[in-house]
Design goal:
mainly alpha; single chain; 2 helices
């Protein structure tokens, strides 16, 4: 039962990633952009809140 739920979750995650970015390369590039945005947001939060 747990294996079935884990399989479905992993499948949906992979399917969404590939379909959303259309290619694995696109997914990698998207992840890089997301990481850069997260770092910029973190820097802004540190500046404003600390």
């Amino acid at each position: 039962m747990i294996f079935k739920k884990m399989f479905i979750a992993v499948f949906l995650l992979e399917f969404t990633t590939i379909v959303g970015c259309e290619t694995v390369k696109g997914a990698g590039e998207g992840a890089k952009k997301d990481w850069q945005n997260a770092q910029e947001l973190d820097a802004k939060m540190r500046q404003e809140l600390w």
